[in-house]
Amino acid sequence: MLFAVTAHPILLSLKSKFIIGYLDDLTAGDVANVLADDFDQICEQAGNIGLSLNVHKCEIISNTGFSNLPQQFNNFKKIIPEESELLGAPLINSEALSRALDARCSDLARASNRLKLLSTHDALLILKHSLSSPKVLYLLRCSPCTGHDALDVFDANLRLALSGITNVDISDQAWIQASLPVAQGA
Fold it and tell me: Quick one: residue 25, left, alpha or beta (phi over 0 = left, psi -120 to 50 = alpha)?
């Protein structure tokens, strides 16, 4: 919170059309020369309060190439739009999204074998709060995942994990019913 209060005046001084700050992550979007001016502004204002940017962690995303960028971006990681992420969530439906969803599927598949070794209650709590909902819901909320094939794989892995933990074979109809949205007030 203190960092956000400290960084807020810096963000307000920027000229870019797109500016986001979350904890210690700053994101700006505009044409290259405006971004270069904003980068200089951030470096100057941050230096005045004893902060500095780690330029080697900075990224620039460009769909027009990287050959004519201002010199301020020389040490930035160059990212093409298909590989772009914001706070760990892919920005477009691309290979980056497939990799992120596949990673969630493989994490769940690997963990489901280990969860069978725990007591049912502990395994269900871990499945609910650590492995399935939070990480996939974050991707679903932040990335264009609609209709992605990996969601079916994740669903099948989740069903297998739940069946393995509870030692109950879940029929197709029961799984559909369990997947229905809960009515408000119920």
Answer: beta
pTM: 0.69
Cα 168 to Cα 134, 161, 162, 164, 175, distances in angstroms: 24, 10, 8, 7, 12
Backbone angles phi, psi at 19, to 5 degrees: -140, 125
| Tens digits of pLDDT across the chain (186 residues) | 777 788 888 899 999 999 988 888 889 999 999 999 999 999 999 899 888 888 888 999 988 888 888 888 988 999 988 888 888 889 888 888 999 999 888 888 888 888 888 898 998 888 888 766 688 888 888 888 888 999 899 888 888 888 888 888 999 998 888 877 665 555
